[in-house]
Amino acid sequence: xxxxxxxxxxxxxxxxxxxxxxxxxxxxxxxxxxxxxxxxxxxxxxxxxxxxxxxxxxxxxxxxxxxxxxxxxxxxxxxxxxxxxxxxxxxxxxxxxxxxxxxxxxxxxxxxxxxxxxxxxxxxxxxxxxxxxxxxxxxxxxxxxxxxxxxxxxxxxxxxxxxxxxxxxxxxxxxxxxxxxxxxxxxxxxxxxxxxxxxxxxxxxxxxxxxxxxxxxxxxxxxxxxxxxxxxxxxxxxxxxxxxxxxxxxxxxxxxxxxxxxxxxxxxxxxxxxxxxxxxxxxxxxxxxxxxxxxxxxxxxxxxxxxxxxxxxxxxxxxxxxxxxxxxxxxxxxxxxxxxxxxxxxxxxxxxxxxxxxxxxxxxxxxxxxxxxxxxxxxxxxxxxxxxxxxxxxxxxxxxxxxxxxxxxxxxxxxxxxxxxxxxxxxxxxxxxxxxxxxxxxxxxxxxxxxxxxxxxxxxxxxxxxxxxxxxxxxxxxxxxxxxxxxxxxxxxxxxxxxxxxxxxxxxxxxxxxxxxxxxxxxxxxxxxxxxxxxxxxxxxxxxxxxxxxxxxxxxxxxxxxxxxxxxxxxxxxxxxxxxxxxxxxxxxxxxxxxxxxxxxxxxxxxxxxxxxxxxxxxxxxxxxxxxxxxxxxxxxxxxxxxxxxxxxxxxxxxxxxxxxxxxxxxxxxxxxxxxxxxxxxxxxxxxxxxxxxxxxxxxxxxxxx
Length: 706
What we know:
With about 700 residues, the protein is of the alpha/beta class. The chain is about 30% helix and about 15% strand. The chain is globular.
């Protein structure tokens, strides 16, 4: 009787969800996808029926990563709450048929609309925009076949009121830019290939009658990101030509991200000269050829800068301090700084300096003191070697940046200098970093318990201290300074990789274990850590970093053998929140044990494996796909034959496509000559976010688009 009465008392004291206040319930419901709220949750009871239609939940509808949404759900959603929607984000919904866009016309009050990655024809766009008179922000793709002459006068009237435009170009065109006469923010993504599918060379010349028509007089933000290719450079010059004639007076952010060589011309020089005379900038990014060897930075004026990117520039630390940081004045506003590939940025001058020489700690100290509010910092793709001076190690100086949320560092920069000087090279350091047969060596046994690892050496290391001081870090990238992915964008797969930096030879399991201190870590990238012996540090991360959503591992340990496989499988059993996993490692064996461990990642949505001479087990892949119901992307580029890859890809699509409308499967031999043709069909969302390897810290200004 006592037990029964105790249970009754416990039940009577239990908390009923419906007894919470409306404010608390609305906050809880804000984490539920809008499609579930409107189509499912609101049908459970009267109270939830009212709350699910609250304006705070229906004014902004985000479908961009709702991989379960289909055409019918969108249709019903627009019928039920279309008039209540002010912001609609369907970016990357590549699986929805183009006819889905027709239902957006029900959203008469739309102010912001993002259709990037959706299939939209000129006629459909015209019909839709003709009804959206309140629209002020628009994001679309411009695909081959786009014809601006098909846009109606009502559509053009809507575009004339648009203030923000994001346009991704897959064909040479101005798109809808000429119709947007009131633009204040223009974001351009150039994804035009140099050759058509038939092999014909494309021209960057725009159609007759389209030239000299963009309206930039009200422009405040200009951003252009170019994929590799000559045609992209040709087309962006045409967009810039109008800017060079008359620079907008209110321009405060000018950003051009261009890979490789993008030469400066007379027109672009005139544009930069005009900017130096007439505007004060808050954000700046320029191609390296426009900055290298010029005195441009000395003449540009800045107001309250929040973003700088000097990626791949030969800018020296002396110039950085004098011309950009300006002795520490007015740089408290800077929140994001990208110095990726800027090999001399922490040295006083670059004329007689080798890239591997020690950094000048006083320059980094000036940077840290001047930019004390930095939240995003990228120092990757360079050799930043600290000297033996006590207290001046790069990690010690960076530990002062208490507001950092994302950080990218080269592997050689986190080495404890004193340890390197005192310790002779170990057998593992002397292992050749090449493919082929390896000499058997003794492998040191590392304990898997975090406390035991800490007791060995890492508590006293500068990297351990850095990780301990950046407790709120959400994104961390540790990438070898000479690392290059085996899957570049528009070329065949790279067959050979450069050896790691000598200073990086000692970085391994203990440094990885130090990362486990980052309790709030959400995204982790580790590439080219040569001294990984067992991968034991990965287990610590899996146990401690319970918020981890994105994990990318590449070329860890010896190149001829996956030495960390056992530890990786143990780690994955604890990664309940992991959504994206990218693995790049030669000779990787994706077998039954690996996929069984991966099946513990119940939230996993996207998987990408890149492995030269790697193998896979088809039955294990099929079983994994059947067990992990959330997986909608499976990309594997291995050493298997074309027949094996095609058969497995077809089996996955045939078995799971019906229940997973967003399913995207690409299984293909890594070294096959047609790889680039296969890559071009991958949805841009997956290609840009996971399939292609790159550093993403401070890649763009924060909050560039909503």
